Amino acid sequence: MTNWFLRDKKPLNDDTIFENLTRVIFQGGLNWKIIDNKWPNFQKAFVDFSIDDVANFTEDDVVRLMEDASIVRNSQKIESTIYNAKEFLKIKEEFGSFLDYLKTLDKSNNYESAVKILSKRFKRLGPKSCHIFLYSIGEDIKHDKEVLQ
After folding, report:
1. Does CATH place domain 14-148 in 1.10.340.30?
2. What is the reported pLDDT for 49?
């Protein structure tokens, strides 16, 4: 089990949840160890995943990040991280927090409806990665154990 999965406790705040979302997105298609090794650099590059700060990133920040060899330089994933931070701000404004928002979603049938809604709301979050994301923040969602290896 990876050390960033919050299985025994709920995330402390939305920044932590946003960080897990971003990590799942950047891991898509890559070896988990690559992301593990580079993650401290991601934390620095994305200002410790401060939603307020990342939501205010500009095109200059995208260029800066694309030139940063210490992270995975994928413009679509970088741009989606900024977009997703803005979505977190919208959620915070409407619901107070991501966890409060999550409580409003239908979790029946192994979160089927919630996965569809979240996959549409956040960029570069497909159903499989959405399952991993929800699992990583302590939700009681079932999935293939091999995905976590």
Report:
1. yes
2. 98
